[in-house]
């Protein structure tokens, strides 16, 4: 098969292998650190977990990606990218060690969150730099395959890092500090691995002209505004993004509810709750996988708006039916359905944006998309923090989320009729 052959060629490229190793170690460390943060906030026996604490943790993990992301490229085009990997991972290793010390001491909680915030913020630069550096180690003919392999491998590494963190936590009798130190070691290994690459190999090219930093930042801000204006002119893409934002909000609210149920309502101890959460996340991941398989067929059958309506409508019916008993058994299929609905909606939305938005604006619109995607999740966590009781059982949250799903389904059906009535409407596939 051509793809298998290309993968074999890529892995024979020495500098590609080295850059991939930097990515795998860095993202494995991210998985370890994120699990350590989540288990400390939610499942540490000494902590009285609240929805507000979960919302704060989600803000620390997600907001830096959205707020820093659009401007990270401006700096990455001015700094040697190899040095970004070296110093970025060294900085995160040092900050992770500081976080471990904070976990061992009785310090104000805000100090812990500040440390975690800096660790996750630096990650945006490292991930963007890895993507920007790829064309320097792979020829253009195999760049598409490399762009597919590298992020997928990084995601698998992050997942493996999360599993490694859970294993470390069991081996150390629930020591979150030991788990964070494991992440620090992996960050350090990633930094050392980057030294195997030549300093100037990964760019940016020095013969290219650079504008002043202030002007570049201002240009980026103006570009995002221009992207927003362009999106306002592309009603199909804007409506799909609005629907996806609401669906992501619903998923975030239900995630916080699930965390509280696993922590207090369905377990006698933190370890039992963590095991239940692992099962629920596995069910949700299975839903994500099934969505990737069936969405191309579903979009061809129903159209993009039609598939969004089917996803939201199914969630509106099944989410209260499975969720209102507040029992573990029906909640597992509910997690599967919500994973399928959320990922199926995202795939349809991605395709709508890619086909409806002009290429010159596509990058800026996807930057706005990333902001909406993460901010919606954090906003949902904040709403849940206000509405959920201590044990996570809330009829109000379940019914409200079902109403939001139903509203999205009805809006998508209405907009689908309007869109298909246009003579220049976009094709379904």
Summarize the structure.
The protein is mostly helical and 429 residues long.
List the helices and strands and how they pair.
Elements: H1 2-12, H2 14-43, H3 51-76, H4 81-104, H5 109-133, H6 143-171, H7 176-194, H8 213-233, H9 235-265, H10 270-302, H11 304-323, H12 328-356, H13 359-387, H14 395-421
Helix pairs in contact: 2-3, 2-5, 2-6, 2-7, 3-5, 3-8, 3-13, 4-5, 4-7, 6-7, 8-13, 9-10, 9-12, 9-13, 9-14, 10-11, 10-12, 11-12, 11-14
What does this structure look like?
This protein is mostly helical. It has two domains: about 1-210, Growth Hormone, Chain: A (Up-down Bundle), CATH 1.20.1250.20; about 235-420, MFS general substrate transporter like domains (Growth Hormone, Chain: A), CATH 1.20.1250. Helix content is about 85%, strand content about 0%. The chain is built from 14 helices and no strands. It has helices at about 1-10, 15-45, 50-75, 80-105, 110-135, 145-170, 175-195, 215-235, 235-265, 270-300, 305-325, 330-355, 360-385, 395-420. Helix 2 packs parallel to helix 6. The longest helix is centred in the middle third of the chain and has 33 residues, at about 270-300. The model is unreliable at about 425-429 (pLDDT under 50).
């Amino acid at each position: 098969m051509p793809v298998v052959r290309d993968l074999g060629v890529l892995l024979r490229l020495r500098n590609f292998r080295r850059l991939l190793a930097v990515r795998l170690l860095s993202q494995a460390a991210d998985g370890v650190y994120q699990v350590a943060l989540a288990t400390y906030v939610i499942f540490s026996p000494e902590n009285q977990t609240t929805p507000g604490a979960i919302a704060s943790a989600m803000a620390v993990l997600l907001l830096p990606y959205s707020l820093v992301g659009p401007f990270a490229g401006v700096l990455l085009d001015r700094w040697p990218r190899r040095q970004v990997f070296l110093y970025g991972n060294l900085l995160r290793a040092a900050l992770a060690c500081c976080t471990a010390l904070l976990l061992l001491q009785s310090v104000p909680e805000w100090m812990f969150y500040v440390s975690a915030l800096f660790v996750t913020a630096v990650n945006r630069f490292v991930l963007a730099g890895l993507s920007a550096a790829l064309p320097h180690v792979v020829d253009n003919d195999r760049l598409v395959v490399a762009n597919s392999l590298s992020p997928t491998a990084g995601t698998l590494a992050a997942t493996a890092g999360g599993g490694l963190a859970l294993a470390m936590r069991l081996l150390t009798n629930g020591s979150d500090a030991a788990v964070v130190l494991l992440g620090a070691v992996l960050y350090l290994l990633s930094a050392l691995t980057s030294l195997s690459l030549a300093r100037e190999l990964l760019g940016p090219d020095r013969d290219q002209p650079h504008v002043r930093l202030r002007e570049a930042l201002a240009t980026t801000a103006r570009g995002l505004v221009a992207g927003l204006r362009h999106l306002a002119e592309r009603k199909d893409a804007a409506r799909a993004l609005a629907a996806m934002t609401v669906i992501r909000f619903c998923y975030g609210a239900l995630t916080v509810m699930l965390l509280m149920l696993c922590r207090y309502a369905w377990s006698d101890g933190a370890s039992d709750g963590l095991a239940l959460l692992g099962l629920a996340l596995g069910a949700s991941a299975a839903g994500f996988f099934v969505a990737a398989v069936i969405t191309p067929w579903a979009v061809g059958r129903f159209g993009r708006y039609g598939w969004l309506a089917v996803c939201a409508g199914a969630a509106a019916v099944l989410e209260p039916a499975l969720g209102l008993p507040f029992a573990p058994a029906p909640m597992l299929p509910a997690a599967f359905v919500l994973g399928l609905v959320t990922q199926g909606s995202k795939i349809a939305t991605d395709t709508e944006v890619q086909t409806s938005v002009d290429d010159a604006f596509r990058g800026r619109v996807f930057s706005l998309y990333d902001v909406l995607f993460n901010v919606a999740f954090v906003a949902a966590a904040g709403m849940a923090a206000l509405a959920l009781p201590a044990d996570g059982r809330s009829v109000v949250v379940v019914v409200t989320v079902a109403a939001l799903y139903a509203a999205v389904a009805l809006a998508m059906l209405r907009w689908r009729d309007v869109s298909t009535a246009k003579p220049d409407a976009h094709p379904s596939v």
